[in-house]
Every structure is written in C-alpha cells, then in structure tokens.
C-alpha cells in the first residue's frame, strides 16, 4: 500500500518564521509551498523549494487569497474570473523558482478559505481547475475528498487527488470543522494516528457528532503551522509503515 503524505510549507514571511520545514521535509512525500499571497515571499519560496529538492519531495503550488494578515483563512468576495487569475499567477511564480532550480512542479493545492470555498462552490472550483489546466494539464489538483473541487478537476480532464486530513476534524457533510469552533484542530497524536489509519484501512472518518463519512484517501495532509506537525509526521509515517 502506498499513500502520499503532504504538508503545507514555506509559510514564513520575511523575519516571521512559521513551522519547522527543514525537519518536516524529511518525513513527507509532497510539499505544498505558499506562493506569496497568504504567506511566503520569494526568498522563502526559493529556500523551501531547494530543501524539498534535496529531500526528493514532490513540489506543489499552494495558492491562496491575497490575505497576509489573515493567513488566507478569511473569506474574500472575489469573483471566479479573478480567482482564475490569482491562482494562475501564483502557480507561475512558484514554477519559475522550481524550474530555475532544476525541478518540476507536481501538483496544485489551494489554501485555507479559498480551498474551503472551492470544496462547496462549483464555479469557484471550476475557476481553479481551469487555471491549473491552462497552465499545465498534467499537474494534479489536490482537493477535499468528495468535494466540488475534485469534481471540477475531473470535469475539465486533469488528474486529481482526494485529500484527507490527519490533524483536522470533520463535519457530517464531509467538510472540515471551521477553525473558529472548538476541536477543529487535532492536537492529540493518538487521535490523529487513529483517524489516519481508519481512513486508509476502512475508507471512513467519524464526524464530530459521530456520523461515519465515506472517504477515499489519495493524499494525507498535515498542516505545517500545527505546533505538533513534526511529531505527527514521524508518528503517522511509522504507523503507515506498519500496515
């Protein structure tokens, strides 16, 4: 059994440091690198790409809303035609750095509020999928399992990966619990491990109110800004290797 373990990285900005990217990159197989809108800057992007290449980790663009202050987690009323442009712009910026370092871009995963919006709004999802398709139709689009984003990618004919989360809880409709609610982020390592193993073995995850949701895990996400991200990466990798 093989499954991808991805992490959102490169989310520092200038002198503001976030996460432990160097160590986490030793434990994962795919990195979603911020492209300067919700986090990151050109130097951080370059540094993170170089570290990912040294660790033979697949590199993906992680485009988000232009919201540095809110870390891309606040909703913004941006129409789909502008979402297309801002996603295309961010993919291109990371691609330039990856290409200059002799690497290849592997995938695209939207960030934060944009990701959650695309999970539920088909027109937003279509704008993102079209940006990926028009840039390079061989890139894989990461989207929340059972979401509009995956449907839009399949509709336009690009590869998709169904993403599940090790460190987030779920609502009964399959969406992630909003971060504004208590219990949205999992901090207990055994809870995270148990959730991952059940998703991989049984293709199920329990919602916060105890309802089982059918879920297909192509790639498992850890958040680099989670205070326990490195420990989770180590423990989850060990648990998956034991299956």
From TrEMBL:
Record's keyword terms, sorted:
ATP-binding, Hydrolase, Nucleotide-binding
Q: Which InterPro entries match?
A: Glyco_hydro/deAcase_b/a-brl (IPR011330), LamB/YcsF/PxpA-like (IPR005501)
The entry's protein name is 5-oxoprolinase subunit A
- Does Manganese appear among the keywords? no
Q: Which family does it belong to?
A: Belongs to the LamB/PxpA family.
Q: Which reaction does it catalyse?
A: 5-oxo-L-proline + ATP + 2 H2O = L-glutamate + ADP + phosphate + H(+)
Q: What is the recorded function of this protein according to its Swiss-Prot or TrEMBL entry?
A: Catalyzes the cleavage of 5-oxoproline to form L-glutamate coupled to the hydrolysis of ATP to ADP and inorganic phosphate.
The reply on keyword ATP-binding is yes
Q: May I ask which residue range the UniProt record assigns to the signal sequence?
A: none
Task: Supply the NCBIfam families for this chain.
Answer: PRK05406.1-3, PRK05406.1-5
Q: Which gene encodes it?
A: pxpA
**A single BP term in Gene Ontology:** carbohydrate metabolic process
Q: Give the Gene Ontology MF terms in alphabetical order.
A: 5-oxoprolinase (ATP-hydrolyzing) activity; ATP binding
Task: State the oligomer form and interacting partners.
Answer: Forms a complex composed of PxpA, PxpB and PxpC.
Q: What organism, scientifically named, is this protein from?
A: Rossellomorea vietnamensis
> What is its EC class?
hydrolase
Q: What is its EC number?
A: 3.5.2.9
Q: Which PANTHER family match?
A: 5-OXOPROLINASE SUBUNIT A, UNCHARACTERIZED PROTEIN YBGL-RELATED
Pfam families to which the protein is assigned, alphabetical: LamB_YcsF
